[in-house]
Amino acid sequence: MNVRRSAAVLTAVAVIGAAAPAAADASPSPSPSRAALPSALYGDGDPQYDGVWRQSLALLAQHTVGVEPPEPAVDWLAGQQCADGSFAPYRADTAKACDDKTMIDTNQTAAAVQALAALGGHDAVTEKAVGWLKSVQNEDGGWGYTAGGDSDTNSTSVVIGALTAAGERPADVKKDGRSPYDALLKLALPCDADGAGAFAFQPDEKGELVANADATAAGVLGSLGKGLVVEPGEEAKTKAGCEKAATPEQAAANGAAHLASVLAEDGHLTSALAGAEDQPDYGNTADAVVALAAQGSTGPATASLAWLEKNAADWAAQSGPAAYAQLILAAHATGADPRDFGGTDLVEQLTATGPAAQADQDGKGEEDEAEKKQQEEKDSGFGIWWFVGVCLVAGVGVGFLISGRAKKRQP
Fold it and tell me: Are the beta carbons of 82 and 45 closer than 8 angstroms?
């Protein structure tokens, strides 16, 4: 439910004129100077479209594995909120009030709620954010990427996760008598359709539902009322295959069965973008692992996690903090150790993309400088007494003015 942007999502965002949060963009834009970015921000890529998203995932992943995120990083995230409670991907100047040109959206807002609710101590921020999300709920019970946009599975699901994290009951959050679960059920493919049991992102131009693996992973979590963090659970005691989805739980089971069948072939989902060669979709595969684990399909989840352990290291290193976070959350959901993920310490790698790493580097610099100064003083003292000794031996009766060497301190 990380709201990865498949071709369908990217197309929808282009139509509404807003860029989607590339949770783990495999081809990130050129990185601006680190000095030009907030020191509390994770990653050094352009945060214009995913700053809040990747920060939220990074903090959430760290918290999940027992690492206390740096306070400046948490404060930066909370400080990105607009006065009405919403979040935009990135506000370079938070002293300037949000206006009609500020690119606020439901996905950044819901991700921020999940992270800040988990960390605690930010009730005022999360309550205001949830209030804004409720105010832009669509009549069908769901949410679109932007306020007023047509409901889609990914956005509706990540908002459900935010509601749950904030202590709300998603089933009770209704617009015109319809809850988010009603919206998801309408986006689930029936068992007699091509892609049976999957979720569509949105109805296509003809109003038809087309199976979408990215949306299906999100839809499974949303239908279960789950957020981005899933605790390892027991194997589901449900029948394999697709049955009529009269309830959100059955829709989740159907969606998980669809994902399991797609993953069974080679262990991963595939990215199929127009004009591009098909290739493994690491981010969506990680999300599918979380979704399967949440539903109790532990066998398929574990198998795909093993594929990620063997193949996802380069992708994560290239993509940055959100990618590391996705893998950490996938490992956590299946009970695996994210600190030994195919020989990689994902937690260490994630931390290295954030402000703590810079602080550690600064601290090391100060320690090195102090050590150098101490050595200089030691060397200087040794030089003085050696000189005095020589003078005494030589019987020189004149006084000497002795000064230690002053070495230039390195900046």
Answer: no
